[in-house]
Amino acid sequence: TVGTQTDYRDGEAQTDPYSPEYIVPSGSVPELLTLATLTWGRGLPAGLAEVEMIERAREKRAWEATLPSMDSASQIAKRRKMMDDMERKEWAFREKEIEKLQEVRLEVLKKLLQRREKNQNELDAKRLDDHWQNHQKAKEEKMKKIQHDCALMLRKLIAKRKNVMGKLERRDIIKEYTDFASQTYAPLSRIGYFPDNHSERYVVKNIYLSTFAGLCELEASLPDSVTQVKIKAPKPKYTTTETGYIKRSARLEVELAQVHQ
């Protein structure tokens, strides 16, 4: 009543089917011995081709039983004629088998050629796609460069057309300080100004920060509220009302504590 499934099934561990020993009685030729050349994987289990071979062997044995005896010249001539006819039939059958085998090989060759052609077409398509992608990338880079050069030339033309007549303009200090992109806030290095130069002048130098005595004096000048921390203990929350009832918030806190625990 209990079904079990092991790691190794009988079907997975099964070897070739067992063929027991046999003894042939004298004077008898069993038909089964004609299939002794068939083994598991080579003819067994029997298919359509093996069945046709068995039927052909039976017909040949029946034909051999009908051969005339060799006791007279006429019987010998008749026997030779029958054997020649059978030999022609055998050769015709063999030619048909060879033609079938050639057709099968031709079909296999066609499939191999089609597969190779398909793989070659896929490879060619991939190469063309990669080539097209490279051309597209080069085209986009070229268009970006053209757009960048166009914007640069437009800015130059706009700057040049601001003062077409070449008139001298007075400096507008208010305009320079209201525009955060002007030379006052963001000077350019091409006009001889380098923002990183003389950066040490912005460093804070103070006796209170550079010497130990200055630090002690600075610490002594600070009030006690800065150096000494005062902590006030929190007052306990009242969980009951004046009439002696427990508050709703206290009950919720107890339930939350139980859930958390």
SSE order and pairing:
Layout: H1 10-13, E1 39-40, E2 43-44, H2 48-65, H3 73-161, H4 173-178, H5 207-210, H6 212-221, H7 224-227, H8 248-260
Parallel strand pairs: 1-2
Range of helix content: 55-70%
Tell me the span between the first and last alpha carbons. 48 Å
Beta-strand content bin: under 5%
Question: What's the arrangement of strands in the largest beta sheet?
Answer: 1-2
Q: What best-fitting shape do the alpha-carbon axes yield?
A: elongated
Over all CA atoms, what is the radius of gyration? Answer: 54 Å
Spans where pLDDT lies below 50 across 5 or more residues: none
**Helix and strand succession?**
HEEHHHHHHH
Compute the number of helices.
8
Mean pLDDT: 85
What characterizes the major β-sheet? 2 strands, parallel
Domain CFAP91: 4-156
Family: Belongs to the CFAP91 family.
Region (Disordered): 1-20
Protein name: Cilia- and flagella-associated protein 91
What does this 3D model show about the protein?
By secondary structure, this protein is an all-alpha fold. It has a domain at 46-155. The protein is 57% helix and 2% strand. It contains 8 helices and 2 strands. It has a two-stranded parallel sheet. The longest helix has 89 residues, at 73-161. The model has no long low-confidence stretch (mean pLDDT 85).
